[in-house]
Amino acid sequence: MKTIGFIGCGNMGRAMVEGIMKANLVDGDHMIVSNAHPERLSELSEIYDCYISDNESVAKNSDIVVLAIKPYLYKEVITSIKDIVKDDVIIINIAAGISTQDVVEMFGRKVKTVKAMPNTPAMVQEAMSALSFSDNCDQDDKEDVIAIFESFGQCREVEERLMDAVMVVSGSSPAYIFMVLEAMADGAVMQGLPRNDAYAFAAQAMIGSAKMMLETGKHPGELKDMVCSPAGTTIEAVAKMEEMGLRSAIIEGMRACANRGKEMSKK
Ligand SMILES: NC(=O)C1=CN([C@@H]2O[C@H](COP(=O)(O)OP(=O)(O)OC[C@H]3O[C@@H](n4cnc5c(N)ncnc54)[C@H](OP(=O)(O)O)[C@@H]3O)[C@@H](O)[C@H]2O)C=CC1
Ligand SMILES: O=C(O)[C@@H]1CCC=N1
Predict the structure, then answer these.
(1) What ipTM does this complex have?
(2) Treating both helix axes as pointing N-terminal to C-terminal, what angle do 139-151 and 11-22 enclose, rounded to 10 degrees?
(3) What is the protein's major site of localization (predicted)?
């Protein structure tokens, strides 16, 4: 069994660790986690019986190291671990704006590395992640990494140049989806539904609609039309949402997200 190490265990790292442990991909002896404030992880180690240690120990003892720290910390953290990681370690880079080439340059050698873009639904085994492998990863390396990402959801291999596109539609999108869900619940509360019921109806409508699109393979416009009765209620909502710029708000928000990713890559 390979040992998986996480350096940084905040929002994204923790979602991945929880997803991996819930799926029993490794036992607690093969999961080592470090964090700037390790005391924040005591509950995690109690639930999943995994090791909480420091960056050095994660680097020395892990076959696969996930760098789940903020992008600006990559240089500093890699400098501190580059001489102590195992020779054939696989480094997983999940940071927005950090490329495979950046990681290789920071290590100063052609370390095996994977550029990945997961999302927080990893916590409930429903992540959708993109992966792009450096050319020195062999088939076994790929299978090991894919097993990690499949333990907490689905994943697809994409060309690294498309990672920012994946970030806007998947890595960052849970934030916009939660905003939509919150707004939908507000709309239902306004009509008198208790808030908890409103969240449950809104979230299940989101899950059901997404599942329907994936399972039927139908165009989302066709599925939308199936809900809009002539002179009915839904078409009134659709017309008002178009008037308020719902779709262009989403598209422009995603463009801003992509632009920020490009800006971060230049630093
Ligand atoms: N959040 C998301 O949905 C997604 C994030 N990402 C990427 O994941 C990475 C992490 O993001 P996110 O989880 O949101 O950030 P968080 O700030 O939530 O987590 C980062 C963690 O790193 C810890 N940390 C800080 N400095 C160090 C250090 N020197 N050594 C070890 N641990 C350290 C922090 O500890 P403490 O809090 O105790 O200071 C914190 O727990 C980013 O690069 C981001 O681009 C990618 C896809 C989605
Ligand atoms: O907001 C961010 O920068 C990170 C990257 C993708 C999701 N969260």
Answers:
(1) 0.98
(2) 100
(3) cytoplasm
Which domains does the chain possess?
Answer: 4-163 (3.40.50.720), 171-266 (1.10.3730.10)
What is the CB < 6 Å shell around ligand 1? Answer: 7-13, 34-37, 40, 55, 68-71, 73, 77, 94-96, 117-120, 171
Question: What is the token pair recorded at 173?
Answer: 């999108």
| 10 in a known ligand binding site | yes
Residue 141 and residue 213: Cα distance in Å, rounded?
33
pLDDT over 90 at 267, yes or no: no
pTM beyond 0.90: the answer is yes
Helix (H) or strand (E) holding 26: none
Write the residue with the smallest CA distance to atom 39 of ligand 1. 36
Instruction: Return the ∠ at Cα 97 (arms to 93 and 98), rounded to 5°.
Output: 40
